[in-house]
């Protein structure tokens, strides 16, 4: 049986699973099959299957699975050193505003290899004091970041020890998001805590 | 402290596994982080071993073609570097299986029923005022597969472990003037005691009627997990009666009469016990699980717990598991006999405390197994915060107090921070705080700070820090080094601004829990 036949059989079986079972079973089946193919060095066949998953999940409007398929596609194109194609998928995922643990991981690895253009800019950094109050500190100069993982890395590498609230502007869709990052080394304590609010005479 | 390690076949990519426990098991959780030469790429909280293994594999296969045997071998070597003995075969199995292999264990458990435990109570020499809670679990069969067998026993232990309550039930009954009987039920929360090991409990009944209520009976249901160190009821000369129920000790107070709008307050000083779970494989299809509670006694500056088990069945036990959960306030210094794997394992789980797991094969009839633990307090941090507001409710100052232990011989450090949020006062601020009377201030920072020590009318040592209010949005701090060989007082301070004092407490919240924090 040729590898084309193998891929076609897997696609037919996967479609059947999707029709009779669930999207989760569908993804689990394809993932198992691509893993088997990759062990036999059939990475291109695996890429065809992940394209099939991406197209199917797009029609299904399953954003998490779609993001997962995109992460597989970027990493597989990187494995076969087709960085142009990896960048194409990368840009496509940016256009679709997809985000997930796997996709962010893969995109950060890809961005480390390529000089990709980011859309996210840190516009405010607040430092948290012992009372939980936020104090504004100077934000970064005009550096653009590809995704939140790279921003997290930037904070860890460039800010002193502390807990920070970071406001990020996504220039692409003009939205703001806020993330909290701690760069402190924490230790485990049995914490006895008392909070009081009192009125003075 | 785990370090990141390069994945095999790459010099640019690294993985770090930060386990939340020192014991390798399918339930171990960890933070898995990925790095390249520039720094952190991403990290993921994994809730079990399968998720850890698959997360490592996922990252690995992003960089290189998938290779389960290499991933499993890499994880075993990584864990070995941080003194955790892994199992290559189990990891490989978890990486290769499509499903969670242990998910159908529920089907193996046929029945769970409560059993009488009087014979165990007599044989185990348990503390007074406690009982043993017993369950008999019938299973279809013990799996032959080691992994599934172990998972089933862990599941039975976990399912039947005593869950420490956060509040205590109290129910009252009394006669109204018209002769009707009324009942009230309450959940009383546990409070901070004078020392780290103590727990305070208040049980209050108020007569909200305009007439006296009579024949009052208050029943507090104290779980066997708590040792009763002391108790009392206002200034009344009443002794309660006690009744041992299946899971709680009922303390019953009978009060002849409560006048209108008056209340009675019962106070308890409790101490936590060791929460012991014993699993006996009695027959191939019958497993007994016992919950036993063991006292922790103060011994000098340390604490000691002694436990005893005896096989009272009329046959040898093929296998016996004992898990001793130490209350979170304590740290373990040593065990006797020494806990050495595979018979004894001390598990230190992040934010969950310490438990000691014993596994013994072939326990003979009437064989006694004794274990002793020497304990010390777990590193604590006291964090007291007070928000000062004016009549309009605007925040003027935020004031914090932290207590951190120094080395045992050195006592502890108290740090005070005053932050001016929005006050223009030119008055001096006084912070008044308590120290145990036998504790002494041996240093302060800044050295020129004005700190007074005095003994008040009740014989307590009061320290007062007098300081100029910081300007708006600024803070001022004082660090006090205290010498004393007993624990500090975990209480909040009083504040005076000029001659003005605190008028009313608007909100108050007290909690004790494990947290990951940076020392202030």
Detailed description of the structure:
The complex is a heterodimer of chains A (201) and B (520). Chain A is 53% helix and 22% strand. Chain A is an alpha+beta fold. Chain A folds into 2 domains: 3-113, Serine Threonine Protein Phosphatase 5, Tetratricopeptide repeat (Alpha Horseshoe); 120-182, no CATH class. In chain A, strand 4 and strand 5 form a beta hairpin. The radius of gyration of chain A is 22 Å and the shape is elongated. Chain B is mostly beta strands and 520 residues long. Chain B has 4 domains: 5-96, no CATH class; 105-155 and 281-377, no CATH class; 167-272, Immunoglobulin-like; 382-501, Mu homology domain, subdomain B (Immunoglobulin-like, Sandwich). Chain B is 11% helix and 52% strand. Chain B has 5 helices and 34 strands. Chain B has helices at 49-63, 68-81, 88-96, 118-124, 146-159; strands at residues 5-6, 13-19, 30-36, 39-46, 109-115, 133-139, 167-175, 181-189, 191-192, 198-206, 213-223, 226-233, 241-244, 248-258, 263-272, 274-281, 286-294, 297-299, 302-310, 317-326, 330-336, 344-349, 353-363, 368-377, 380-389, 395-405, 412-420, 428-435, 440-445, 450-455, 461-468, 475-483, 494-497, 500-517. Chains A and B meet through helix 2, helix 4, helix 6, helix 7 and strand 6 of A and strand 4, helix 1, strand 25, strand 26 and strand 34 of B.
């Amino acid at each position: 049986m040729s590898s084309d036949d193998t891929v076609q059989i897997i696609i037919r079986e996967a479609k059947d699973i999707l029709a009779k079972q669930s999207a989760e079973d569908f993804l689990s089946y394809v993932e198992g099959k691509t893993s088997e193919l990759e062990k036999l060095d059939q990475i291109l066949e695996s890429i065809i299957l992940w394209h099939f998953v991406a197209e199917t999940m797009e029609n299904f409007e399953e954003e998490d699975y779609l993001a997962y398929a995109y992460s597989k596609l970027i990493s597989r194109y990187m494995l076969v050193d087709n960085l142009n194609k990896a960048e194409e998928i990368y840009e496509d995922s940016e256009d679709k505003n997809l985000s997930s643990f796997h996709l962010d991981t893969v995109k950060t690895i890809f961005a480390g290899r390529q000089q990709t253009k980011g859309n996210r800019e840190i516009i405010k950094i607040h430092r948290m004091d012992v009372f939980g109050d936020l104090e504004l500190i100077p934000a970064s100069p005009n550096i653009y970041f590809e995704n939140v993982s790279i921003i997290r890395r930037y904070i860890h590498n460039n800010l002193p020890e502390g807990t920070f609230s970071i406001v990020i502007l996504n220039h692409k869709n003009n939205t703001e998001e806020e993330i909290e990052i701690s760069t402190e080394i924490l230790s485990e304590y049995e914490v006895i805590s008392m909070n009081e609010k009192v009125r003075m005479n | 402290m785990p370090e990141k390690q390069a994945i095999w076949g790459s010099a640019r990519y690294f993985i770090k596994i930060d386990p939340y426990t020192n014991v390798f098991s399918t339930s171990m959780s960890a933070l898995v982080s990925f790095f390249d030469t520039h720094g952190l790429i991403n990290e993921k909280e994994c809730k079990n071993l399968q998720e850890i293994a698959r997360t490592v594999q996922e990252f690995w296969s992003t960089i290189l073609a998938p290779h389960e045997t290499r991933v499993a071998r890499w994880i075993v070597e990584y864990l070995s570097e941080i003194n955790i003995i892994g199992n290559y075969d189990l990891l490989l199995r978890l990486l290769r299986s499509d499903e969670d292999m242990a998910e159908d264990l529920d089907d193996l458990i046929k029945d769970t029923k409560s059993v009488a435990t009087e014979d165990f109570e007599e044989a185990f020499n348990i503390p007074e005022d406690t009982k043993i809670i017993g369950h008999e679990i019938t299973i279809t069969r013990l799996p032959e597969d080691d992994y599934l067998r172990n998972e089933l026993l862990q599941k039975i232990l976990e399912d039947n472990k005593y869950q420490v309550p956060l509040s205590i039930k109290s129910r009252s009954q009394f006669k109204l003037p018209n002769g009707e009987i009324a009942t009230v039920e309450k959940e009383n929360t546990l409070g901070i005691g004078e020392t780290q090991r103590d727990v305070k409990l208040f049980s209050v009944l108020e007569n909200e009627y305009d007439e006296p209520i009579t024949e009052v009976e208050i029943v507090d249901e104290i779980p066997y997990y708590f040792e009763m160190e002391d108790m009392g009821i206002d200034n009344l000369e009443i002794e309660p009666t006690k009744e041992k129920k299946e899971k709680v000790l009922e303390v019953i107070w009978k009060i002849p009469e409560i006048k209108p709008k008056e209340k009675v307050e019962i106070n308890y000083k409790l101490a936590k016990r060791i929460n012991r779970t014993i699993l006996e494989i009695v027959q191939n299809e019958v497993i007994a699980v016992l919950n036993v509670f063991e006292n922790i006694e103060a011994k000098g500056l340390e604490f000691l717990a002694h436990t005893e088990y005896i096989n009272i069945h009329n046959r040898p036990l093929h296998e016996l598991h004992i898990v001793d959960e130490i209350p979170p306030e304590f740290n373990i210094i040593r065990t006797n006999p020494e806990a050495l794997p595979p018979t004894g394992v001390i598990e230190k789980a992040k934010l969950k405390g310490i438990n000691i797991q014993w596994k013994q094969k072939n326990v003979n009839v009437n064989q006694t197994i004794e274990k002793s633990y020497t304990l010390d307090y777990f590193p604590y941090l006291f964090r007291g915060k007070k928000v000062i507001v004016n009549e309009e409710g605007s925040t003027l100052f935020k004031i914090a107090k932290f207590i951190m232990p120094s080395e045992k011989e050195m006592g502890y450090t108290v740090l005070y921070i005053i932050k001016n949020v929005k006050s223009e006062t030119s008055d001096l601020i006084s912070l008044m705080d308590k120290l145990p009377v036998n504790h002494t201030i041996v240093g302060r920072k800044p050295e020129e700070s004005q700190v007074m020590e005095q003994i008040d009318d009740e014989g307590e040592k009061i320290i007062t820090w007098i300081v100029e209010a910081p300007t708006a949005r600024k803070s001022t701090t004082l660090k006090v080094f205290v010498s004393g060989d007993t624990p500090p007082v975990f209480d909040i301070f009083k504040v005076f601004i000029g001659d003005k004092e605190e008028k009313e407490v608007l909100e108050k919240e007290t909690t004790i829990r494990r947290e990951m924090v940076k020392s202030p």
